[in-house]
Amino acid sequence: MANNSCTDRVVGAILASWRYDISGITPDMRKDYEQHFAECSRCRARQKFHRSLDGTLAVLTSLAVLFFLFALAALNHLKPLEHVAFKVFGLDVADMYHMLFSAGIAGLCFSLIVLALVLTATPAPKYLGGIAAERAKLIEERLPDSIKTLKPR
Ligand SMILES: [Zn+2]
Question: In terms of pTM, does the model score above 0.90?
């Protein structure tokens, strides 16, 4: 299905250069591209692929931030590391903690920068927000009527 050729190569090339993201252009200009997505299964598939790639990048970088936060928090509770530092590497305990803490901070800063880049350079926030809104709508539809009537409109 993704091997089908594009129905309009010019529009397809423009969309490819934008990584199939039309969220940044004005609504009246967007109409033509939306129509192309409706007609062209190849571009539709590519758009879906790129948006899931953006979403995956955002999730992975968020996980990296959490991982480094966790590592920094766990650093104070790792007594066995002192043993390893003394016997294996011949390091001073303070040196070792300083080294690990620096590595943790560096990793945290790096993953925060990458996360910021992913969130600003890709439409990932909109994509993930759209998924969340869709899920919320589905859950809302499944709610019993007695609860639905309680919701303020
Ligand atoms: Zn196309």
Answer: no
